[in-house]
Structures are given as structure tokens and as C-alpha cells.
Specification:
18 helices; single chain
Length: about 575
């Protein structure tokens, strides 16, 4: 293979500290600044450090063997911050797993990770409890939305207000389902306050600090091992793509088990002294109001949430506080990116550009990002390589491709994972011998070094003639029609062969004219696509379902839908079932 890579000289930051120690060092000069804001309740950096120490002392008492670990199954909450940083301070590994994954294999996520303590959100209790009752867990610390809430702002909806006012949640669960291992957060904190243990900072170079379990949207869930060093170096590199200063308001929405949220919400802004405005109820229907009410300056959200902004009737100045709107996780069409940028500008955002990025849990998770100077015109491209990262695009035979040639993306980065937890074979399969990772994505790089990550290599089907049909190429044609608001092309097996079908959400003004739109789309596809690429079925739907953890589109659910499709027969449209 010819070795041609794009590269920048990488500076070694030599951050030989734990994540906690680096956070503490960076924020020691502003102890009274608000560090966390949660439904109007605030904790200063000094108060956070005190609570982290209390949590650390409690963990030391409850975890005599620091080789054991603590697993989190929670949304983003103040207690999640305190508990994670406390564990990192004393050198105990933390694991993050979603409530949708944990019940499927508690042996893998509890027993095999040597978990003795589970930090569990009360809202996930019913889903998780039956699966974990037979595990060797010693304690389950129940956390709630109401923890730490003393005052509630007027903008909070009545249903959430009612929930936040509830107390004794852990006690109610204990009565409803006897479980001797359960402990309330209040009890846990009291143990730490009474403990005489000294919570000294511990840093062990090269050891795993965190295991993040992937959401399983593109494959089986895997535990991604992350070290203190890789994390600290990547956070330092973020200085080149952000301009966070102490006191900036960062809106925290996505659960911490999501790798993007773990890095870009839980760690990076807090390292630089941002106020973490925690809003754990993450719904695209309320996203616009969340931005307005919290006066967020920085936010990271999924594409579907930004798309929902187009349905909001913003007034000039509604988003004047917003400075950096970041997005990642899914491809965004150029048309949608432009539309979102227009909304941000109309609403008065200081920097009215949607900042796209790309990465993987295994690689940081940031590989490409756009700088402020490029955001306004890149639109749907993910930007250029961040500092220290190398990339190449290859064909199926391993030959390095040139500019504007579509191929498989491979990446080499110093911020990479240590490996997949207890899966050395998968780790070896993911990395080439020269350290480049096989991302599994298809990408193009233009002559300016800007990358367009088009989709997954597996987002394809094999046609009858043996050729590969990339489903995202079909989507790009579908999006050329103004009637299409959202689209997803999938491959369904029909009569022993895989065929492309398309799911579509229409723009509001076109709803009710389904047959006309389908006829027009079919004509468009015949004009721009090969015979193998033309969709064999069209399905108009009201909305796309989303994964409750990643907030990405729930692709797998679409594969279960076999009816409600329409095909074009001459000039007529008729319904079929696959």
C-alpha cells in the first residue's frame, strides 16, 4: 500500500495527571464561579470540589478493593458529575452503560466488569431491576431528577415541576420491590460526610479510567477503554476548535454513556471553567425552548434536534446568547445545514453556523471539526483533521485514493482507545498493523483538506450483478426534491434479493399529496441513478423514531416494517407488502 497521509505535527502536552487533577488545576483560580446549574440550582467550583471529596470518601469506604469498578446507568445529573470525578480522583474505574443495553446482558456489564456498585437513575429502575437482582452487586445507589433541587424556575413545565418536587423516591422503590442492596443518594452522601478516610488523588499511567459501552446502533455494544492520558490530550486539543472561557454556559443534554456527551459535555467544557447547565430531559420537541430558557452559549445536540428548530417561530434575539452550536453523530444534508444556519441567524445567534464534527467512540470521539472561519460555508462537511490526527481514504484493495475520490476512511490518532474491554480479538481487528483504524465509513476529501463523511460502508446492499449499492447515494438524490423533509433508505430482502426502499417524512405543505410526490421521486431516481439503485418501494411516514440513548434515528426499527410501502407501476401508485 502506498503511504500517503494528511498530517499535522502533533505537540505532546505531557498531561501526566488524572482527569480530576487536571480539572482541579484548571479551575483553582475561580472557586466561586458557578460550576453547575440544574433547574435554577447552582453549585460553585469550590462546592463541587467539596462534594467530589465527600463522594470519594464514601467510595473509599464502600470499595476496599480499588481494582473493582463502579457502573453508571444514569442521564446527565449533578450526582453523575460528582460521582465520576470522585472515582477518577481515587483511581477507580468507571463504566457507563445505557438502560436499554444493561438488562440484555447484566453478566457482561456487571459481573465481567468487576462492578460492585451501580449508580442507577430511579426512572430506569423498573427496566433494569429484574436483570440485576441475581448479580453480585453490593450496592445500588439510586439517583433522581429531584436530587439537589431546592428551587424551580418558572419556565419549567408543570409535569416536570411535579416530578422535581417528589422526595423519597428510593424509599418508595424499596417498598414496592424489596432490594436490600439499595441505597439513596442522601444516605450515600451522609456516609462520605462522616467518613474519616482521606481521599488522596491517585494517578496510574496507562490504566483504564473509563469504559464506555457503545449504543449498538451500528453493531453489537462494545466496551471502549479510555485512559486519563488520551482524554487529557484530546481535551487540550479542543482549544483549537473551541473558545470556551470560565463562566460560559454549556447546555448538557445527552446522557454521559454517549461518547460525544462524555467528552464534549461531561469533561471538556468543565475543564475550561464553563458552567454546566444540566437539562437531562432530552427531547427534540422542547429543544428550541431549552435553548431560549437556559440562555445557553454552547450546546451539543443531535441533527434531529437542530432540524426541529425549523418548526419554531423564533423572534429576533431569542438565541442571542448562543455562540457555539455543535452537532455530530449523523450525516446532515447541505440543504438542511443551510436551513438551520438561516434559523440561527434569524434568531440572533452570535455565530449562526452549525458546527459539524465527526468521530467514533474508539477514536476520541473527534477526528474532524470545522473552525469558526469555515463553518459558514462548509454546511454539511465535517471539516478538517484536528491536531495530531492522520487520515487516509482507500479503495477496496487498500490503495490510497486522491482528492474527491470516494473510499473507505482510515484514521490514526494519539487519542485512540486503549482497546475494547476484554475483547483483544476485536481490538486487533479494528486497527491495522500501522496503527490506522478501520472506521467502516465512506468519505471524500476535497483539495482544501475538508472531509465529507458520507455514510457507513455497511450502509449498502449487494445487487444481483454483484455490485455494491450505497444507500446514502440514493438518499442524496431523494433530498433533491423540496417535498422531502427527512429520508432514510434501507435495504430489505425481497424474493431472495436485497432491494433499496425509502422512508420519507414530507414537508408540511406537501402532506396529503403522497402519490404525486412518490411519482415525482421515482422519476427523479430514474434520471440520476442506475437500475440497481432505483428504490423498489416508498413509504411516507409522520416521523422517524429515535434511539432513546443516542438520539439518532432508530435504523433497526425500520427493518422490521414490511408493510405500508408503495411502488410505482407505470403512472400509478399502489400499496405493497415486502
Amino acid at each position: 500500500m502506498t503511504e500517503q497521509v494528511q498530517n499535522e505535527n502533533h505537540e505532546s502536552f505531557n498531561k501526566e495527571n488524572s482527569i480530576y487533577e487536571t480539572w482541579q488545576s484548571c479551575n483553582k483560580n475561580h472557586p466561586d464561579l458557578p460550576a453547575i446549574e440544574y433547574f435554577g440550582n447552582q453549585w460553585s467550583f469550590k462546592q463541587c470540589e467539596e462534594l467530589i471529596d465527600i463522594y470519594a470518601r464514601a467510595f473509599l469506604l464502600m470499595l476496599p478493593d480499588k481494582k473493582k469498578s463502579v457502573t453508571f446507568c444514569t442521564p446527565s445529573l449533578p450526582s453523575t458529575f460528582f460521582a465520576f470525578y470522585a472515582l477518577n480522583k481515587i483511581g477507580v474505574r468507571a463504566n457507563f452503560v445505557s438502560h436499554t443495553i444493561l438488562p440484555s446482558n447484566p453478566n457482561e456489564y456487571i459481573e465481567e466488569t468487576d462492578t460492585e456498585i451501580l449508580v442507577l437513575f430511579d426512572g430506569f429502575f423498573k427496566a433494569v431491576a429484574p436483570a440485576i437482582k441475581k448479580t453480585k452487586l453490593k450496592k445500588i445507589i439510586i439517583v433522581s431528577l429531584s436530587d439537589g433541587v431546592k428551587t424551580i424556575p418558572d419556565y419549567v413545565p408543570d409535569k416536570i415541576r411535579e416530578y422535581l418536587l417528589k422526595t423519597g423516591t428510593a424509599k418508595l422503590i424499596k417498598i414496592a420491590m424489596p432490594f436490600k442492596k439499595i441505597m439513596s443518594l442522601t444516605k450515600f452522601e451522609s456516609i462520605g460526610r462522616k467518613s474519616n478516610f482521606e481521599a488522596k488523588s491517585v494517578y496510574n499511567k496507562g490504566e483504564t479510567a473509563v469504559v464506555l459501552y457503545t449504543g449498538g446502533s451500528t453493531g453489537i455494544p462494545k466496551g471502549v477503554e479510555i485512559t486519563n492520558e488520551a482524554t487529557n490530550h484530546l481535551i487540550e486539543t479542543y482549544k483549537t476548535i473551541t473558545s470556551i472561557t470560565p463562566g460560559d454556559r454549556n447546555l448538557v443534554l445527552i446522557p454521559p454513556n454517549h461518547p460525544t456527551s462524555f467528552m464534549i459535555s461531561l469533561l471538556m467544557p468543565w475543564r475550561y471553567g464553563a458552567t454546566q447547565v444540566i437539562q437531562p430531559i432530552y427531547r427534540k420537541e422542547t429543544f428550541a425552548d431549552d435553548l431560549i430558557n437556559t440562555k445557553a452559549q454552547i450546546v451539543m445536540a443531535a441533527p434531529s434536534h437542530y432540524a426541529a428548530l425549523l418548526l419554531k417561530d423564533f423572534k429576533a434575539g431569542d438565541l442571542r446568547s448562543l455562540r457555539s452550536a455543535f452537532c455530530g453523530g449523523e450525516p446532515v444534508t447541505k440543504e438542511l445545514a443551510i436551513a438551520i444556519n438561516n434559523v440561527l441567524e434569524k434568531a440572533g445567534a452570535e455565530r449562526p453556523w452549525l458546527g459539524l464534527g465527526y468521530g467514533m467512540s474508539e477514536l476520541g470521539p473527534t477526528v474532524f471539526s470545522a473552525t469558526d472561519e469555515t463553518l459558514s460555508h462548509l454546511c454539511n462537511k465535517v471539516g478538517s483533521l484536528i491536531k495530531g490526527v492522520e487520515a487516509r481514504i482507500i479503495d477496496n484493495d487498500g490503495n490510497v485514493l486522491g482528492n474527491n475520490e470516494k473510499g473507505r476512511l482510515e484514521v490514526r490518532t494519539p487519542y485512540r482507545m486503549k482497546g475494547y474491554y476484554k475483547q483483544p480479538e476485536l481490538t486487533a481487528e479494528f486497527f491495522n498493523e500501522d496503527g490506522f483504524a478501520k472506521t467502516g465509513d465512506i468519505a471524500i476529501c476535497d483539495e482544501n483538506g475538508y472531509y465529507d463523511v458520507i455514510g457507513r460502508a455497511t450502509d449498502s446492499i449487494t445487487a444481483v450483478d454483484g455490485s455494491t449499492v450505497y444507500l446514502f447515494d440514493i438518499e442524496r438524490v431523494i433530498y433533491k426534491d423540496n417535498a422531502v423533509w427527512e429520508a432514510e433508505v434501507i435495504g430489505l430482502t425481497c424474493n431472495g434479493k436485497d432491494v433499496p426502499v425509502v422512508h420519507i417524512v414530507l414537508n408540511s405543505e406537501y402532506r396529503g399529496n403522497d402519490n404525486d410526490v412518490i411519482l415525482r421521486l421515482h422519476t427523479l431516481c430514474k434520471e440520476h441513478l442506475s437500475a440497481n439503485e432505483i428504490p423498489q418501494g416508498y413509504k411516507i411516514r409522520e416521523v422517524f423514531g429515535t434511539n432513546p440513548i443516542s438520539a439518532k434515528r432508530d435504523y433497526r426499527a425500520l427493518l422490521e416494517e414490511r408493510n405500508g410501502y408503495f411502488v410505482v407501476d407505470g403512472n400509478e401508485v399502489r400499496e405493497v407488502e415486502f
